[in-house]
Amino acid sequence: MTNVLMIEDDAEFAEILSEYLAQYNIKITNYEDPYLGLSAGVKNYDLLILDLTLPGMDGLEVCKEVVDKYDIPVIISSARSDVSDKVIGLQIGADDYLPKPYDPKEMYARIQSLIRRYKKVNVQEDGNVDSDFRLDEKRHQIFLKDKAINLTPAEFEILEYMLKHHGFSISREQLVHNCKSLKDKGSKSLDVIIGRLRNKIGDSSKNPKYIQSVRGIGYKLIG
Q: Domain 126-221's class?
């Protein structure tokens, strides 16, 4: 069974979604109060569905706290139509943003996709994925075909984040936000780092074997 934590102040909406997902062996535990939701043992759940308009605490604050403390996929589910909410949510670490109203079938599909992704990431960290890269978090090193790559702190953070999302498109905003060593938070600085990484791993932007540019989004690590 997949256990989903939901923080949503619309109890009727939460109940409808819960009943729909139950047929797929997905159990939703909803809290209308964000403070109760945060104290409900977040780490014991497989995924979080988070509303933004909540009593006493903005959903973006909740998202930031969860992302900073726990390794759990987050789907923001909100009726707020401001594009900046979506951008900020993804920048601070949410994995997906689904505007209300939506078909429960779409939420189910996105939950399945994220659960598969996170399972793959956990395997990747154990070094068991069929990939030329291997991440050793304890030694703070990344290996390519069992040879350590000499990386600057910013290069390591970017490549580490891409490794943890291996095979999935990552936005430029996500990469910049998650690279704490990147002093200049602009796209040009990210391009410089990607260029240096490609040089160090023997990759080409025209015919990429590892770092693939995704038009209009950002990058994807393959191979």
A: mainly alpha
